[in-house]
């Protein structure tokens, strides 16, 4: 086999400029610029002439150079802590599609759970991102202040910050957890337990509080408790401890689906079938797989991502308004991993749900 | 509750410059630049002085502006087709971490399976990315040529291109599939079937050819066949058709794990237990979950991502060398979803494997 031809130099000798394209198309340079700006006003005929000339000359608008003029990079930084959790992979996918529709691209930052993310976020700002989305990543008040000073909108998803200068879009942690408590009680469970995520995460704290408060209102004592730290292996270990107890729980509410999958495996493989009802929170993709079938309270991706985009746009266009802080309601989806009450089951979009 | 204070203007009145930092730190402007360039030579004392002055002034180097001078953006474009497939989510995570270690960040592009990706890739080039990684996304020869002209290295992962100007890092599609054929034969299976992915994807074609060729060498006729298009729902439907046949298969090799999870669900929930052995390809995270347990041939992420980074660096630093085209070997991991031969099972890194 012959060696492929030597690669050309890293950049072409002289790249075509907007000026070259304008001359060839017989239009103004500003028309060329508008033709390549999403949403800018330009006639179809002009756009076609510009695109034809650009193709002939191999012209490609330099978004990076443009960002120095417009002070917009068309880039949104997205920090995600858990890509091994399928809920966040799906969230990232949906975010990428939604932001693309607004003319933005995602610059990805992976953070390690529990680690201090300030150094990473500092770096994000050096890329002059137009905005920042933090998915299950904490926001220090110091960094929140820096972002405000730099004029970079920040939206938290599935995490609430104490600092009310940042927008937060969350699922219905308290309401969903209370519904799960009523569901387990109505299903005849006597010894419910809670499998906590990271102790300092607002998601885990709010879900636990909603669950325990509702159980108390129903006359139960404080639920049994173990901590899985939102980690698969540690959730397996915590489930083993709970199910090996002298008086094991008969129901286990896991603070997210990812830990629910771990609990299901331990219950089914190590404790003979499913001696305990398992309920998750998220409706991550695999929860709906027939081979798994995890009953769970959903955090609906589409509406959540829509609200994230709305929150970003609002901060960009109306920085004087208070940032959006919204709770998106979900539904309790019945997939077979928990014993069900006789009443209250209905169908919604082809899924069996429990409304209490 | 009182309204939060009005947000400041989008950009501060006058941002601190490298010049301001140099003056305050009492060093040259070039020392400031070196202090913020990963890998650049600068003494620890100078770096500390610069960082202190930068912090005091709120200075943040503008990577975007720098990229116009260095002609490097420190950004690598990554296009992924299937984020709902956990294998690609994990690949993206590992890539992001590995590229970060080389001073790069990931600009994410999500492509739809089977769609023409040229328009998206065109846009990637406008961001002046330093390089492009395509994960299970096809590369047209037209676009490959454009990237060569623009001097942008391209590496394909888990997809092979006809064009030998692009680097390709793949798992051992042919070897792994042949091993699965020997494994199923040794386990006493008589009617093996293949569940194909996208018909035009090199992964599906190479796995099918390796499987069928080895089965023929073992004296089997052509395997039964159905097409799942790498789509969960279509893989479920294809499995239903295969298992409902008058003479159903007794083993099903799925072209990837994601379809394997679909097949497992249909077999277990709709055909009473596991009447058929199911084997996947990838070792996506959930394959190892106790609640699923999918026997599969692995594509080891760490070595694959290491090779991707090596391939990128080689093209950046030695563009005259032929691009890397490498196959990374995996292992057949036994997780219980397929009947096993009596012989040939051993332990490797705590996992049961079959070496044939």
TrEMBL record, chains A, B:
One of its GO terms (molecular function) is DNA binding. The keyword DNA-binding applies. Keywords: DNA-binding, Transcription, Transcription regulation. It holds the Pfam family LacI. CDD domains: HTH_LacI (cd01392), PBP1_LacI-like (cd06278). Residues 1-22 are annotated as: Disordered. SMART domains: HTH_LACI. Residues 10-22 have a biased composition (Basic and acidic residues). The keyword Transcription regulation applies. Residues 16-70 form the HTH lacI-type domain. This is LacI family DNA-binding transcriptional regulator. It comes from Roseomonas haemaphysalidis.
């Amino acid at each position: 086999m012959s060696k492929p031809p030597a690669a050309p130099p890293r950049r072409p000798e002289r790249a075509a400029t907007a000026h070259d394209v304008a001359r060839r198309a017989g239009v103004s340079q500003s028309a060329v610029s508008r033709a390549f700006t999403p949403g800018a006003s330009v006639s179809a005929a002009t756009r076609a002439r510009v695109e034809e000339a650009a193709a002939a000359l191999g012209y490609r608008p330099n978004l990076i150079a443009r960002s120095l003029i417009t002070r917009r990079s068309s880039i949104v930084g997205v920090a995600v802590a858990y890509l091994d959790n399928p809920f966040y992979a799906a969230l990232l996918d949906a975010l990428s599609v939604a932001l693309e529709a607004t003319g933005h691209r995602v610059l990805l930052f992976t953070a390690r759970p529990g680690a201090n993310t300030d150094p990473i976020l500092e770096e994000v700002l050096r890329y002059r991102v137009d905005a920042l989305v933090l998915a299950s990543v904490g926001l220090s008040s110091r960094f929140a202040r820096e972002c405000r000073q730099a004029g970079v909108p920040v939206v938290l998803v599935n995490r609430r910050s104490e600092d009310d200068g940042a927008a937060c879009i969350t699922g219905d942690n308290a309401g969903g957890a209370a519904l799960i408590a009523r569901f387990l009680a109505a299903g005849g469970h006597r010894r419910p337990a809670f499998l906590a995520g990271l102790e300092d995460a607002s998601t885990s704290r709010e879900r636990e509080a909603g669950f325990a408060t509702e159980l108390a209102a129903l006359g139960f004592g404080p639920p049994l408790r173990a901590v899985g730290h939102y980690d698969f292996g540690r959730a397996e270990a915590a489930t083993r401890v709970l199910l090996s107890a002298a008086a094991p729980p008969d129901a286990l509410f896991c603070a997210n689906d990812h830990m629910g999958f771990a609990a299901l495996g331990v219950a089914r493989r190590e404790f003979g079938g499913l001696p305990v009802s398992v309920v998750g929170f998220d409706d991550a993709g695999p929860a709906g797989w027939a081979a798994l079938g995890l009953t769970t309270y959903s955090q609906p991706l589409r509406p959540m991502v829509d609200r994230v985009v709305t929150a970003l746009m609002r901060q960009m266009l109306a920085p004087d308004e208070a940032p959006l802080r919204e709770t998106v309601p979900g539904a309790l989806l019945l997939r077979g991993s928990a014993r069900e009450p006789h009443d209250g089951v209905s169908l919604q979009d082809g899924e069996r749900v429990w409304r209490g």
